Amino acid sequence: MITYVLFFFVFTSAVLNVHCGILEKNITLAAHCMEEAKVTQEVVDTYMEDPEKEPTEDFYCYLQCVFTGVGLIDENGDLDIDLYKSMFVVDVDCLKDMPKIVKCTDMEALSECVKD
């Protein structure tokens, strides 16, 4: 679980300044996802400071939003395996067997595919 949370923090840190035209506003993806998942910057910071902390459902919603926003997960919940491979060290067979990510807590299953 520690590797999983660290993996997501490193990734989300990299996209914190990605700008996108959501609802015709120029806001960062991270800010949009915090609003959508109803988590505060303090909550996100807490996980960055303590990666061993067990993620809440709200935090998984934040991660799902970020991953969807950058194209790692499409609107149907399917993973873009080629994009994952280009960004992270993962078990490709595990990703291929991954069910659709349709609800926030489905994000937890991705931890099994991250290589240490």
Automatic annotation (TrEMBL):
It comes from the Eukaryota. CDD domains: PBP_GOBP. Keywords: Signal. Gene3D superfamilies: Pheromone/general odorant binding protein domain (1.10.238.20). The keyword Magnesium does not apply. InterPro entries: PBP/GOBP (IPR006170), PBP_GOBP_sf (IPR036728). Residues 1-20 form the signal peptide. The keyword Chaperone does not apply. Transmembrane segments: none annotated. One of its GO terms (molecular function) is odorant binding. This is Odorant-binding protein. It comes from Anoplophora chinensis (Citrus longhorn beetle).
